[in-house]
Amino acid sequence: MNLRDKLARLPAPPAPVATAPERADVLEALRRKMSEILQRPLSAPRSPADPSRTELPFVREDSVDGPIYRRFERLLPSQHVGRMPLDAAASAKSEMLALLALDPGLAGCDVRGALFLDTETTGLGGGAGILAFLVGMAFFEGDRLCLEQLLLRSPADEPALLARVVERVENASLLVTYNGKAFDFPLLNGRQLMNRLPALPVRPHLDLLHVGRRLHRARLGACKLKTLESDVLGFVRGPDIDGGDIAARSGHFLRSGDEEALRGVVDHNALDVMSMAALMALYGEPLGTLHDRDLVGLARTFKRAGALERADQAAHAAVERGAGPDALRVRAQIAKARGDRVRALSDFEALSAEVGDPELYLELAKLYEHHVKQPLKALEFVELGTGESAEALARRRARLRRKAERPAKSPRRKRSGSA
To answer: Residue 414: its pLDDT value, please?
Structure first.
């Protein structure tokens, strides 16, 4: 390659630096543009918190702590979320809810005094600057479930909103949320602290997310509230906002007062609260209302709670309704826990014909060794693989072989008494 070719491949030289006259022209052009912008007529700013009117279904109420923007509605007795009537929540059995929540403190609670609570916030995290700009609550007045929503139109009004929430919690016998133990309740307590107010009153707390995961996760995976609405309650919301958009909408509203940005958020929050009431109604009488596969989760939860009779009923129902190998397994485990080794052996053997599982082989080896007293049969399952460590497996194999080599004991004859 000659010198001319090499020079042709070099990058182009940088553009020449503007001279002083050229820079002056640029500055003059910028001044003219700024002058044009400043001379444009200003549009009227939107008021972020007009106290005299609201386009959303909220009414201003004055309190000793400041203004409250409140929506209140008594729901119809016929109101349903999917297949569950909301007023059935008033008949939910607190003892059943206590078992499903694995929380004995819920037993004996007056479910008619339940407060269903959900918040919409200005951010996704739990930082000190995150506000609950919309609080949805539901509670019973007589036989009617009532919906109440509180809207924060200005951060200055937060003490009044918090005071109303505190009042509702004080009057409640039971707090019901969906992920409220991890999010809503700590958030509200944090806002109490930031406003130099006492912590919220302590009440028994039913977090439906934990119950939902125990009963439905094997079938549904991630148990979002909307998933439970569609696949457990049989309710599809239709068009709805995405939870990730709520913070942006709230920020726009607080800056501009544009209420239209919150219309979908208000509807979303109301449905969340009503769905909690429907779920509590369903969980209060779950055996006849759950999906076949969810009965397996119900049986396991009862077993964890120590309610073995209820667990056995749920497991039998799951097997009879064709819930598959998982139902057979849980029924066998419950039978073993109840001391019914005959049932446990029968179910474990039936399951072994369908699935190959080291845990299952270990259970059968134990039952044949200790209950049926057939060490050779126990050895057969040991050789299939029990998932134990090499050391434990060697000990079990050696013990079973020793037992198999022992001569069978003759039954003792009873001595006849003297006449």
So the answer is: 57
| Confidence band, pLDDT 50/70/90 cuts, at residue 191 | very high
Take residue 219 and report the two structure tokens written for it.
């079938």
Contacts of 93 (CB under 8 A, 6+ apart): 284, 285
Distances (CA, A) of 119 to 137, 150, 204, 266, 314: 9, 10, 19, 11, 35
For residues 268 and 355, what is the distance between their CA atoms, to the nearest angstrom?
44
Task: Pull the structure tokens for residue 165.
Answer: 């929430």
Tokens, residue 59? 């009414």
Number of residues that this document lists for the chain: 419
What is the sign, positive or negative, of the torsion defined by CA atoms of 93, 99, 100, 102? positive
Q: How far is residue 341's CA from residue 299's CA, in Å, rounded to a whole number? A: 18
Specify which residues 117 forms β-bridges with: 137
C-alpha distances (whole Å) from 347 to each of 129, 306, 315, 334, 339 are 56, 21, 11, 11, 14
Tracing tokens 């006449």 back to the chain, one arrives at 419
Separation of alpha carbons 160 and 68, rounded Å: 6
Average pLDDT, the chain: 88
Residue 250 CA to residue 416 CA, distance in Å, equals 92
Strands 66-74 and 132-141: unpaired
How many CA atoms lie less than 13 Å away from 226 in the CB half-sphere? Answer: 11
Q: Could you give the CA distance from residue 405 to residue 414 in angstroms, rounded to a whole number?
A: 27
Joined tokens for residue 128: 């000190």
pLDDT (tens digit, 9 = 90+) per residue, 215-267? Answer: 999 999 999 999 999 999 999 988 888 888 898 998 888 888 888 889 999 99
Phi, psi angles (nearest 5°) of residue 134: -145, 125
Task: Classify strands 132-141 and 114-121 as parallel, antiparallel or unpaired.
Answer: antiparallel
Scan for tokens 């819920």, then name that residue.
106
Q: Who contacts 24 (Cβ-Cβ below 8 Å, separation ≥6)?
A: none
Q: By CB neighbour count within 10 A (0-12 exposed, 13-18 middle, 19+ buried), where does 24 fall?
A: exposed
Distance CA 97, CA 89 (A): 11
Q: What does the pLDDT look like over 86-134, one tens digit per residue?
A: 999 999 999 999 999 999 999 999 999 999 999 999 987 656 789 999 9
Q: H-helix or E-strand containing 167?
A: helix 158-170
Residue type, 33: K
Query: What is residue 37's predicted lDDT score, i.e. its pLDDT?
Result: 46
Give the residues across from 150 on adjacent strands. 70, 135
